[in-house]
From TrEMBL, chain A:
InterPro entries: GDSL (IPR001087), SGNH_hydro_sf (IPR036514)
PROSITE patterns, A to Z: PROKAR_LIPOPROTEIN
Annotated signal peptide: 1-22
Organism: Pontibacter indicus
Protein's recorded name: GDSL-like Lipase/Acylhydrolase
Keyword Magnesium: no
Keywords, in A-Z order: Hydrolase, Signal
GO molecular function, one term: hydrolase activity, acting on ester bonds
From TrEMBL, chain B:
Source organism (scientific name): Pontibacter indicus
UniProt topology in membrane: Multi-pass membrane protein
Keyword field: Cell outer membrane, Membrane, Signal, Transmembrane, Transmembrane beta strand
UniProt family annotation: Belongs to the OmpP1/FadL family.
InterPro entries the record matches: OMPP1/FadL/TodX
KW Nucleotidyltransferase (keyword) present: no
GO molecular-function terms, A-Z: long-chain fatty acid transporting porin activity
Name of the featured protein: Long-chain fatty acid transport protein
Length: 464, 412
């Protein structure tokens, strides 16, 4: 008996040693950089690159920007662990400058949006994205409070609001240019420009990058879309001239590749597929029979007998080019119209203003420019041997929706998990998925094996 | 010693991580584990209650066996296009057990009772890995209580049948992809006991010569049904609570598939026994995992994921050599083909073809008391799957298990 006990304890001991040393392993090909050198990575772009989210630039969004996530993955293939971003101070969020509604001469910046349950204009309590606090006047003092919390040079050179040509413009970060009419500088670049007269591309080249991502051009067409397609061809908000756009991108890429750097270009999503333009349906006007009869009679009295209504959902009445008419199913209503329809009854007796509607003609202009820009981006990427991220196709995939690791993703506002509370910019989860799209094309182009990031570790829209 | 082991059995009735194909756990006898879990065509002692009730009337004595295994299982996971292992299970020790008692009424007729755990699964991935919305942890238990009778028609031929009374329970936890302001994620827990269910276990044993024996055994399918199980939510943000109503219950059903086995035993010499078994497991009974909720959860009154298991074979060989009258050495091996088709891999049972290697010793302390010890090593083939048909978690899984076990045999 004793002997058996001895034997079994030896057996148990051996088994114990065996167990700890015998965890199952999975042989995956090792991470590798392929033909690319990730030691100095710079990211150029606009708000998407900067990590702008929920209608504002703030620290958590920056920390989850797709360039920050890419840099973290690049670390496993020789990238630097010191990827610098012009981080905002803790607790401060700054949105895009706008005119103060009650005093248009004052330029103010709103805070980020958060979801709150609160009564709307009709007293119905519901979840709504609201600004977290009061907007601040954009003064030099306020700007001073937004100084980055880390020293440059900055690897992430994303500037919210930037168009293609802005990246080439000297003085785009000059504080003196903020107050001119029109402004020649951008407060988001003024925060971190290395000198008043530098340009984004100059600050990038000063770091002698070995690898870059350039994702620019959204604002070249988005400004027009956000204004409801109202800007005239002479306006600075009209889409950038197609040939000029090609020249700007070529100019940027020529400089970026002048030292032999490799990189990836991102193309432009179809802006009309983002929630800002797809959340409010064209037929959001729901009427009772009585209301329909009243409205029909009202328009008939104005000599607009062709505008009629019926019980149930009706196309919104919009004012396009000065003429009231019913919206068509292919036209898009901008997100801010939601509150105006609900609270001020716009879209019925009073039409929705032109700047809240994208007509078919305006959508065609957007599509034409987007297609042209994307053709240029692809041609330049191919000519220079650069990776090409097709975010236009990605957004199309999103608009039909897909599931990954048990989570449904689509371009729905709030619940789609991709877009933050401004309906335009990404959640951290959305940024992680974009980073993986970039990794896909970089791996394919340069024969690299950069590991994908676990997107589930990044937040979606936080609920109260 | 006896009471200590009994206490251990009473406290931990959790069977092991999906060990064999699917969630079958083939650990029914310490002697037979040592021999690659063959036994359909052998006189396996009291464990014939499980392996082949037809053989029970031929064992020639009354006796009791109690045994149990310590099941250490580990699964590694590598996400698609990652570098190396990105998650590992932290499975608790599984303790499948078996108790058999046989009473020889007369030379022809025996009656017995077996309690064993042929199905079960315990997998614990935690709530941080990338597949957490699919699974945090699963505990599936099934305990079979089987009164059995056996009749020796001749001294070469025996038949037997047992009625299986089956109890079971399931506990499944997963993360819910809704986040609070502070970043905590919601959780979902399904917990329920199965209604008692019945099945049967029948066998024929035929020993044409001293050296050769053959057996056929069929264990029927048993459907375990949970009715009115609890659905519990945790950390759901207030804004989303309407989607995850308190007090929801669920119904679900899980098949414990049928198993048909044919086995052969061969004794070339007095001291050496060789055995081979082939089993066919009716896994095609497991078509889907469906939960019906009493109130809609996340907007849906049901949650259904396809499984579409296919029937699978298990091939086993084993041998026992009596070194002396008291000491037996055993060894065996088996190949257990996976029932999980491509596209249907899940983190509950990230199954693939599994290879088992076993060794064992038996020692007779006295005429009436012997001890069996076994060690089984299971290595499942590394498997990469898109899991696109099962709502599973895509990636590569690799499982191994180490299972030492001990059993005590008393003869009267």
């Amino acid at each position: 008996m004793k002997k058996i006990f001895y034997k079994s304890s030896v057996l148990a001991l051996m088994a114990g040693m065996f167990l700890t040393s015998c965890d199952p392993e999975i042989d995956s090909p090792a991470a590798s950089s392929g033909e690319a050198d990730f030691s100095t990575y710079v990211a150029l772009g606009n708000s998407l690159t900067a990590g702008f989210a929920d209608g504002a630039l703030y620290r958590e969004g920056q920390q989850a920007s797709y360039p920050a996530i890419l840099a973290q993955q690049f670390e496993q293939v020789g990238g630097s662990s010191d990827f610098r971003q012009p981080l905002m101070p803790e607790g401060v969020s700054v949105g895009s400058p706008r005119s103060n509604p009650s005093n248009p001469s004052i330029v103010e910046v709103p805070q980020k949006r958060v979801l709150r349950a609160q009564p709307d204009c009709r007293g119905d309590v519901g979840l709504a994205p609201v600004e977290a606090g009061n907007a601040a006047a954009l003064t030099p003092t306020f700007l001073g409070q937004l100084a980055p919390t880390v020293q440059g040079p900055y690897n992430n050179l994303g500037v919210p609001g930037a168009k293609s040509f802005h990246l080439l413009a000297p003085g785009y970060g000059n504080p003196a240019g903020l107050m001119t009419q029109p402004a020649t500088a951008n407060p988001f670049f003024a925060r971190f420009a290395s000198s008043p007269n530098t340009s984004v591309i100059a600050d990038a080249m000063a770091q002698n990058p070995t690898f870059f991502t350039l994702w620019i051009g959204n604002n070249d067409v988005l400004g027009y879309a956000l204004a409801g397609g109202t800007p005239a061809p002479t306006s600075s908000d009209y889409p950038t001239n197609k040939d000029m756009f090609t020249a700007y991108i070529a100019g940027l890429v020529n400089q970026l590749t002048s030292n032999g750097a490799k990189g990836a270009l991102g193309n432009i999503p179809d802006v009309t597929k983002i929630p800002f333009f797809t959340t409010v349906p064209y037929n959001a006007l729901v009427l009772t029979a009585e209301q329909a009869a009243q409205l029909t009679a009202g328009y008939a009295a104005k000599g607009l007998g062709h505008i009629t209504f019926q019980a149930g959902p009706n196309a919104l009445v919009v004012l396009e080019d000065g003429i009231p008419r019913k919206a068509t199913p292919t036209e898009l209503i901008l997100l801010p119209a939601a509150d105006l329809i609900k609270c001020q009854n716009l879209g019925s007796a009073t039409p929705l203003p032109d700047q809240l509607v994208l007509s078919d003609a305006e959508l065609a202009i957007i599509k034409d420019h987007t297609n042209s820009y994307n053709a240029s981006i692809k041609a330049i990427a191919d000519a220079k041997g650069l990776a090409h991220g097709d975010f236009n196709a990605y957004l199309s995939r999103l608009s039909t929706g897909f599931a990954q690791n048990g989570v449904a993703y689509n371009s729905a506002f709030v619940t789609g998990n991709i877009f933050s509370l401004d309906g335009i910019h990404f959640t951290p989860r959305g940024a992680a998925l974009v980073a993986n799209e970039f990794i896909n094309v970089i791996n394919a182009k340069y024969g690299a094996r950069i590991p994908k990031v676990d997107e589930t570790q990044y937040k979606t829209v936080a609920l109260p | 010693m006896k009471s200590k082991i009994l206490a251990l059995l009473g406290s931990a009735l959790i069977s092991g991580t999906a060990l064999a194909g699917g969630y079958q756990v083939n650990l029914a006898s310490q002697r037979q584990i040592g021999m690659g879990h063959t036994g359909t065509g052998l006189l396996t002692g009291t464990s014939s209650i499980f392996f082949n009730p037809g053989a029970m009337s031929h064992i020639g004595y009354s006796g009791v066996t109690i045994g149990g295994s310590a099941l250490v299982s580990k699964i590694a996971y590598s996400a698609p296009e990652s570098s190396g292992v990105t998650a590992r299970t932290d499975n608790p020790l599984g303790t499948p057990f078996q108790v058999y008692g046989v009473y020889q009424v007369n030379e022809k007729f025996s009656a017995g009772l077996g309690v064993y755990t042929p199905f079960g699964s315990t997998v614990e991935w935690g709530n941080e890995w990338s597949g957490r919305y699919g699974l945090n942890q699963l505990k599936l238990q099934a305990i079979y209580v089987q009164p059995t009778v056996s009749y020796a028609i001749t001294d070469k031929l025996g038949i037997g049948v047992g009625l299986s009374y089956v109890i079971g329970s399931v506990n499944l936890q997963r993360s819910v992809p809704v986040q609070s302001q502070d970043g905590t994620e919601g959780g979902l827990e399904l917990d329920g006991s199965a209604e008692s269910a019945f099945g049967f276990n029948a066998g024929i044993y035929f020993q044409p010569t001293e050296k050769l024996s053959i057996g056929v055994n069929y264990r029927s399918k048993v459907d375990l049904k949970v009715e009115g199980g609890d659905v519990m939510f945790s950390n759901i943000p207030a804004a989303a609570r309407g989607n995850f109503p308190e007090g929801t219950t669920f119904n679900a059903e899980l098949p414990m598939p049928s198993t048909l086995s044919v086995g052969i035993g061969f004794k070339p010499t007095e001291r050496l026994t060789l055995a081979a078994d082939v089993s066919h497991v009716g896994w095609d009974a497991y078509e889907k995992l469906r939960f019906d909720f009493s109130k809609p959860v996340a907007g849906s009154p049901t949650s259904e994921a396809a499984r579409n298991y296919e029937n699978a074979f298990i091939y086993r060989i084993g041998g026992e050599y009596m070194v002396s009258d008291a000491l037996a050495l055993r060894a065996g091996a088996y190949l257990d083909k996976t029932p999980v088709q491509d596209g249907y891999l899940t983190p509950e049972t990230p199954d693939s073809d599994s290879r088992g290697l076993s060794a064992g010793i038996g020692y007779s302390v006295s005429e009436n008391f012997s001890i069996d010890a076994s060690f089984l090593y299971i290595n499942k083939k590394e498997r990469t799957d898109a899991a696109n048909l099962s709502n599973g978690v895509p990636g590569t899984f690799k499982s191994v298990a180490y299972i030492p076990g001990i059993g005590l045999n008393f003869k009267f």
